[in-house]
Amino acid sequence: MTIKRKPKDVNEFIREGGDVPAQSSSKEKKSTTETAIKLRLGKDLLDELDEHLASKRVPPSRNKWILQAIVERLDRDKS
Known about the structure:
The protein contains 3 helices and no strands. The chain is mainly α. Helices cover 46% and strands 0% of the residues. It is elongated. It has a domain at 41-79.
């Protein structure tokens, strides 16, 4: 990349322009079956969950624990 002097004329700089960003094709994007959601929890409940997870010898992440809880509940409701 060569280094040029700062153009004295702003219009000259604008005329030089540049390329438009290339559109990414859908093939380049990661295909995933996961969807991000927002989950609202009260501070007290979140603190209780964090304390519970911290007490584990190898604490799982909040996300992992919540996913496991959802799966367990769905399995239980199917029965």
